[in-house]
Amino acid sequence: MNTYIKDYIFLTLGALIYAFSIEAFFVPSEIFDGGITGISMILNILTEKPLGIFIVMLNLPFVILALKKLGKRFVFSTFYAIMVFALGVTFFSGIFHGKCIIPDLELFLVSIFGGLVLGVGVGMVIRNGASLDGTEILAIYATKKLPFSVGEIIMFINLFIFTCAGFVKDWQHALYSIVTYFIAYKTMDIVIEGLNESKSVFVITDYSEEIGKNIMKKMDVSVTYIDAKGGYSGMAKRIVYCVISRLQVQKLKEIAKSIDPHVFIAIENVYEVEGVRIKKRKI
Hints:
This protein is of the alpha+beta class. 64% of the residues lie in helices and 11% in strands.
């Protein structure tokens, strides 16, 4: 219970920091974030409707999409963080009224300091088991149909959003938006202690076959069995190995621990993955 309380305190704080960065730096300067928030900001300019409404409406389908593969806990935490973010945007909008927190701040400085604050907020949310952007969830599903990684798909989506921002506003603001995205992404790296697209997982257990089958069935992830031998016991074991998205880590842990409460799980960062995903053959 203490862990859950801690997680939701940081989820709340991270979402509010993110909302603060949007209303205190980017909305007044018309510099755009990437992902769903960036699309929402463009629609906000075109329609003059509240930004928070677009954030919830556009993210909701992706949150529902995540329910099947990423687990109820992740989905609930993500939905909670998005709602706090949307409410925070509405709250800070009433405070700043479309004015930058630092009057007459140059766009380059807005990109730097706004990106730093944004990265801290989003990083805190991701570190505590949630997401604030549905495009990442979409990218995980799209990798099954397209020959691109999660990171490449997210990059394509954001390049499209920044291109649209160039037509809606101007190309100077679009280029500053790219600078902001880069700074925010690097800041998230620091907050999360290594934000990577993929994780390699070694599961050491006496129930390797059962855990492996459940991972393939419930997560649609291919696994590899590695024959090994216990150092102390001298007994033969089979290690379950797989490569997954960082958003899938919590789901895998839940599957493994539900079968073997004493399971040993080792998770490592994967900086590059090459090869073709082997899909399950229907019989």
